[in-house]
Structure formats: structure tokens, C-alpha cells
Amino acid sequence: MSSSTLNAPGRLLPKDFIWGFATASFQIEGSTEADGRGKSFWDDFSRTPGKTRDGGNGDVATDSYKRYKEDIALLKSYGVKSYRFSLAWSRIIPLGGRNDPINPAGIAWYSNFIDELIANGITPFITLYHWDLPQGLHDRYGGWLNREIVLDFERYARVCFDAFGDRVKHWLTMNEPWCISVLGYGRGVFAPGRSSDRLRSPEGNSATEPWIVGHHVILSHATAVKAYRESFKAKQKGVIGITLNGDWAMPFDDSPQNVAAAQHSLDVAIGWFADPIYLGKYPAFMGEMLGDRLPQFTPEEIELVKGSSDFYGMNTYTTNLCKAGGDDEFQGLVEYTFTRPDGTQLGTQAHCAWLQTYPEGFRDLLNYLYKRYKKPIYVTENGFAVKNEHTMPLEQALEDTDRVEYFRGMTDAISKAVLDDGVDIRAYFPWSLLDNFEWADGYETRFGVTYVDYETQKRYPKASGKFLAKYFAEHIEKAESTPSKPTSVPSKLKSGGAGGIETPASLLGTVKRALGACTSWLSAR
User: Fold this and answer.
1) 516 pLDDT exceeds 70?
2) Which residues are catalytic?
3) pTM for the complete prediction?
4) Which of 131, 376, 394, 423 has the lowest tally of Cβ within 10 angstroms?
């Protein structure tokens, strides 16, 4: 589909389509000891030798806690409608628990950040939890391994809804429960680093702990959603859901075994969390594979969990060719490859071994999710790390041709899914606004559409960021009341408005409301 075809009448994405960039608190904020922030379990984990590829940690990251106005100006220059970011639980409740003190300085910082976004015509889209659990909860009772966390997460969510919900209308409870469960408690490569591999982890059980953690994540999510719907939604009028990772799975060939293998991959990568939340039960294959190691929901919990997301939040990066066999339960007893039967590769190889470009699979996955779960889709992450970009001279890194190729294919897939296939896609948030701390990869892997010089913290827009800004300026219907202007940045954002939000009449007013919310919590204590 050519650009001219997409620009024909009726071939544009709807005017209320949201686009922006995504980040996460621990990956960009730095300032890990500022303004009363408590420890997250990633603090010490990332400082432990051998836990990150280059020895990097999150102490400074991209220094966004101090440079947030610069980052918001950057967002505005790209012409985004929205920005997806996460809150650091330990900035808001330093020890994390339901009876622990709230940190007014943490609430004030995020309140100011939200106000600055809105003042620049950018809709805030908040993730409550993006992997940075307060160390206090891990030390107190084992964090996600203990059901106690359900009520602690609910209290944290309520504090956030109360403090920010007058201005925030889009909420995500959790980011990628599969990664929380498998990478933290199965493979042991993410905090808290638990696994059965004693060369990697002093303690942990990969056969049982990930499934327990996943169960508690689902219950925590659903309990927070119930709190929002019962106590906040009527007044605040927002939407709330969860974002799940999962890549498309294609059979290696047409053999029945490999066709079944692809579905088994989807059952574990996606269905593990999506099926309970949208359909009310775990996939049958998971029960067959795990037996009594898979926790069960009570009837009351099924009622709580089923329907606990207003939309489908989707993080996806690639497509895997699937062969039956293997002993990796986290992949559904399936082997993954990018090599086709004829020996060719599926697509362009990224810096990460697990990622190649294949936009056709993205379109297939969008269709699969919409047909299976029947919810509007928000694509909350999608991105590409150019191979060896961290070793390139600046000028070469800024001409990120492979990333442009990736986003050209992915944006085309979205347009075709919406306009040709009838998939209800509401938003697209490429990962990421900035190069940043990429967890176990440290700073070696760069996903940003903006280059960050970590020595100076200077930001440099890459060709991919400019491509996305131009693409969405040209491929989303303009609001009827907005005159067109010869610019690659949407004029409605330059004039201060963004689709679906009202810019406050006074920045001072929003600050007063935020401080009032904080004061009410302190008074309640």
C-alpha cells in the first residue's frame, strides 16, 4: 500500500488514533536516592557484578528525573499525541506496603510531570508497574511470590488514582507479566534473579515460582482494576487495562506437529495472562503441561479476573518460527528459529538475538488478538535495536536505516490491519523515546528513536524518530476544526490541544489539585 493510497479519502487512520512513545521509570529516571525515593529491587541487582552485560546500572540512566522538561520538549518536537511512562512505586510509597508512609515529594514530582505534559498538549498514559518492585516488599515477604502483594499493590494503585486521576484517563496496571514471572523467577536474568540454575542464582525454583508469581500478578491487576471501577471511574471517567507481551508464532512448516507448536507458543506467551483476563480461565494446554504446578482460581477470583481490562494492551517486537520439541516450558515446549526451511532468514537481524524484522507477523498477531479477545487494541510497545549501534560514530547511529525499515513495515501493518482488516486499534507507542538502560543488556542495546550520549546526556533525534513524526502527521485524519498547516508536526498539538484531552486553563490549578490530593492522604494518616 503506497503512501498516496493511504492518503486517499477514507484511507487515513481515524482522527482519535493515539500515537506517542513509551519509556519506563527505572530505565530513564536515574536519581535513585532523590526526594525520598525508596529502593527498588533493581537498584542493588543492577549494581551487582555480572548482572548486566556492560556493568551498567540505573543510578543515572538518561537522567530524566532532572531533565524531564527537556524530554517533554523533545516529545512535542516529534508531534506526539501521547506519552506512555511508568511510575516508580518506591518514589510514591518508599517501602511499598499498604501501611507504609506515602512520599509527598514523589507524588509532587509526578504531578508536575503530568501537568507539564498536558501544558504541551500531550496526553499522559500511565503504567503503574514496570518491573521496579520496592525492595522493602521483596525483603518483607518475597514480593511477587507472596499473596500479600495483592493488597499492597491495590493500595499503591489507589494512591495513584487519587493523586493523578483527575488528569490521567489512561491506565495500565502491569507491564509484561510474562517477563516479570519468567525473567525474574524462572530464568533469573532480571531482578530478583531467582532460578533453579545455581550457577546464576543462589535460590529459586524455576519449575514452580514463575507460575505462582504470574498468578499473583493477575490477581493484583484485577484487584486494582476493581478498585478503580468502584471508587474512581465514575468521577474520573478513565479507562484501565494491562499490557501483555507476546510475539507472533508461525509454524516452521505445514506439518500438524509444528502447526500445533505455534499455538502452544501463543498459549504460553500470550494466553497465560490474556485467557484468564479476557476469557476467564487458563489455556487448556497450560494445565496439560504443568498439572498441579499451575495455580487455580476460585469461582470468586474468576469473577474478579474475567473482564478486568477495558482494552488489550499489546507489547510485541518480532515473529518466531516454531518447531515442536524442546523442554522449555516458558515457550510452550517449542523451539524458536528465524531460519526458514529454505535456509533464508525471516528478516533483518537486530542487536538482540531474539529480534528480527517481520511486519507481516505483526499484522497477523493484531488480527489474532482482536478475533480471540474482542477488545480494542493499544499497541503499547514495538521497536528495534540496530545491530552494534553502540559502537557506531554518532553520524552513523543517527542514520538508523534498519530501524526506519522496521517502523516503515510496522506502521504499514497497522494501517492495513485497521483499514483493510477492520481491527480496532486505538494507539501505537513505539519503544522507545530515548536510548536507555536496557535491563540485563545495560546500555549496550539501544532501542531509542533519539540517541543519548551517556557522557553528556545530550539527546539527538535519529532518522527513525523523524520518520515516525512525519508518518503520523500524514496518516491520521485531522480534526475538522483544525486548519491544515505545511508542517510534519500535527498543528493541533502546536496549538496546545491533543486528541481527547482538555488542556487545563491554568497550570497553577493542576498543581493545587495535586497538592490537595497529597494533603488528603497525609491527613488520612
Assistant:
1) no
2) 176, 381
3) 0.91
4) 394
Assigned C-alpha cell, 233: 471511574
pLDDT at 521 > cutoff 80: no
Q: What CATH number does residue 180 fall under?
A: 3.20.20.80
- The Cα 275–Cα 298 span in angstroms is 15
Reply yes or no on whether the pLDDT at 373 is more than 60.
Answer: yes
- Is residue 414 pLDDT above 60, yes or no? yes
Other beta carbons within 10 Å of 262:
21
The pLDDT tens digits of the residues spanning 305-344 come to 999 999 999 999 999 999 999 899 999 999 999 999 999 9
Contact 436, 447 (CB under 8 A): yes
- CA 31 vs CA 64, 98, 240: distances in Å: 8, 24, 29
Query: What confidence tier does 10 reach under pLDDT thresholds 50, 70, 90?
Result: low
Q: Domain for residue 208, yes or no?
A: yes
| pLDDT at residue 513 is higher than 90 | no
How far is it, in rounded angstroms, from Cα 227 to Cα 222? 9
Q: Measure the CA dihedral 12/17/23/24, to 10°.
A: -150
What is the rounded CA–CA span in Å between residue 311 and residue 307?
9
pLDDT in tens, 220-238: 999 999 999 999 999 999 9
Number of domains composing the chain: 1
**Residue 151 grid coordinates:** 493488597
What value, to the nearest 5°, has the Cα angle with vertex 134 and ends 237 and 154? 35
Q: Which three cell numbers stand for residue 326?
A: 524442546
Q: What is the pLDDT of residue 522?
A: 37
Residue 345 neighbours by CB under 8 Å, 6+ apart: 338, 339, 356
Judge whether 353 lies within some domain.
no
φ/ψ of 228, rounded to 5, equals -65, -50
- Rounded-to-10 torsion of CA 28, 34, 38, 43: 40
Range of the structural domain that residue 48 is part of:
3-248+270-315+361-524
Identify the DSSP state of 479. Answer: P
Q: How far apart, in whole angstroms, are the C-alpha atoms of residue 370 and residue 379?
A: 12
Residue 278 has pLDDT above 50, yes or no: yes
Query: Considering Cα of 23, then 471, then 338, then 263, what sign does the dihedral take?
Result: positive
Residue 242 cell numbers, joined: 494491562
Q: Residue 15 class from Cβ within 10 Å (0-12 exposed, 13-18 middle, 19+ buried)?
A: middle
